[in-house]
Amino acid sequence: MSLTLALIAYLPTDAVTQGFLPAAQKLGWKVMLYTDVPELHHKAYEGLSFKPEIIEADVFQVQSLIEAVASHGKPDVVFSNSDHLQTQTALLAEYFGLPGKPWKAAYRAKNKAAMRRQLEAPDFYHTVLHPDQDWHTNHPYPVVLKPREGVASRHAYYIPDALTLRDRVQQVWSEEKIPLVVEQYLTGQLYTLETLGDGETIQVLGGFKTRLSPPPYFLEETMEWQPDLPAEMQQQVLEQLAKLGVGLGACHTEFVWKDSQASLIEVNYRNIGDQCDLLLQDLLEFPLFEWVLRLHAGEKLPALEFPRKHALVHYLFAKEDGTVTVAPENQTFERNGTITQFQVLSKVGSQVDGTSSKRSFLGVLRMIGPDPVVLQDTLHDLERSLEWRIASPHPVLIS
C-alpha cells in the first residue's frame, strides 16, 4: 500500500540519505520532507534517483510545524531521526492521531536534566546552570559539563576542578547562551544498547563496546559490536528506559557498566548514528531502516533472530585545524572473510576542526567479519596506509 510519509528533518544526514530514503522507496511510499534548511537538502539529494518533496517549515516550533504539514494534507506516517526534533514530531503525530513516540519520553531523552529528574537516581548529582548564572556548585570533582539539550559529545567536557569549570562555562556562553548541566563523572566501561519497539514490546538488537578519546573531550573512536550483552546489564538499562517512557521506535542508549551496575549517560531516542546504523543493517542482515518506518506506520515487530558476527566502526579524526589538501579514496574490499568499507568524510578542500569537541571526522571504517582478531589486524593495516594532508606538506596525525 502506498503511504505518504511526513519526514521531519533539520540538517541532512547519512541516515536519511543512505538509509531512510532508500527504505521509503522500497516500501513504495511518497516522502514529503519538512525542514527549515531546504537549500541544504536540495543539495544533498542531487543525483539521487528517489527524491523527497522538500517543504520549508519552522520545524522547531510545533505549532508552525502542525500548520505546515496540515496545509499539505494529513500524512499516513510521521517520523524524524533528528535528535533535535523528536518532541515536536511526537506531538505532530499525536495531533494527527498517528503512531508516534510518547512526547514526554522524547522530551526527557533530549533534556538531560529532565532525564535525571525522572530517573531519580539517589546517588547521582547534577545541577543546571542557566546563562549568566553563578557557575559555582557544591559537587565533588571531577564532573562533566554538557549542554542541557546537547547532542552526543558536542560541548561535553571533563572538569577536574573549579577553575576549569569557570573557564569552560565562560567559553561556552561566549559562543552560545544555552543552559548547561554539571553532573557526576561516571567511571566504568562505556557501552550502548540498541533497541526497537512497537509500542508494546521492546527488542534488543545488541550493543557496542565503546572506546573514547582521552579527556577532556568524549569522542567515540572505536565501536565494537557486542551481540550478547549480559542479561543483567540489558535488564537494568531496559528498566531505566521504561521509567523514561521509551516505547515506539528505535532507541540508542549510552551507559557505563561498573560493579554490576548500569548507569545511563544519555538516551538518543532514534537510531544510532555516525554510520553505525548503516553497519547494523548489513551486520544483522535485517532491513533496519524499513522496519523503523514500518513501526511508525503502526506495524508490530516480529520476533527477531540475527546472525552472530563481529563488527567494528572506527573513526579517523583530524588533530589540527586547516584545509584538506590530500585525501585517500573510498574503498570496499573483502579479506580473510572480513568485509571492510572505508568512506572519506573530509575530502580535498574540506575545512576541518582538529582541536575542539567538534573535531572533524576525516573518515570512517566499517568492518564485519567472523573473527575479531582479523578485524583488528585489518584495521591496523589500513590505518598505516591512509593519509590526509591538511594545509601543509606534512601528513596529518589520525586516531
Give me some keywords for this one.
Rossmann fold; 9-stranded antiparallel β-sheet; Carboxylate--amine ligase; 11 helices; 30% strand; Dna Ligase, domain 1; 399 residues; D-amino Acid Aminotransferase, Chain A, domain 1; 4-stranded parallel β-sheet
Short description, anyone?
With 399 residues, the protein is an alpha+beta fold. The chain is built from 11 helices and 20 strands. Residues 90-297 form the ATP-grasp domain.
Structural class: alpha+beta
CATH topology descriptor of the largest domain:
D-amino Acid Aminotransferase, Chain A, domain 1
Q: What count of structural domains?
A: 3
Mean pLDDT over the residues: 93
Query: What ranges have pLDDT less than 50 throughout 5 or more consecutive residues?
Result: none
Q: Give the CATH class of the largest domain.
A: Alpha Beta
Please identify, by name, the CATH architecture of the largest domain: 2-Layer Sandwich
Going across the major beta sheet, what is the strand order? Answer: 13-12-9-10-11-14-19-17-16
The helix content is 25-40%
Strand content: 25-35%
Domain ATP-grasp: 90-297
Keywords: ATP-binding, Ligase, Nucleotide-binding
Protein name: Carboxylate--amine ligase
GO molecular function, one term: ATP binding
Written overview of the protein:
By secondary structure, the protein is of the alpha+beta class. The chain has 3 domains: 4-98, Rossmann fold; 119-184, Dna Ligase, domain 1, CATH 3.30.1490; 189-390, D-amino Acid Aminotransferase, Chain A, domain 1. Helices cover 29% and strands 30% of the residues. The chain is built from 11 helices and 20 strands. Strand 16 and strand 17 (338-344) form a beta hairpin. Helix 4 (86-96) runs antiparallel to helix 5 (103-110) and helix 5 crosses helix 6. The N and C termini lie far apart (47 Å). It comes from Deinococcus cellulosilyticus (strain DSM 18568 / NBRC 106333 / KACC 11606 / 5516J-15). This is Carboxylate--amine ligase. Residues 90-297 form the ATP-grasp domain.
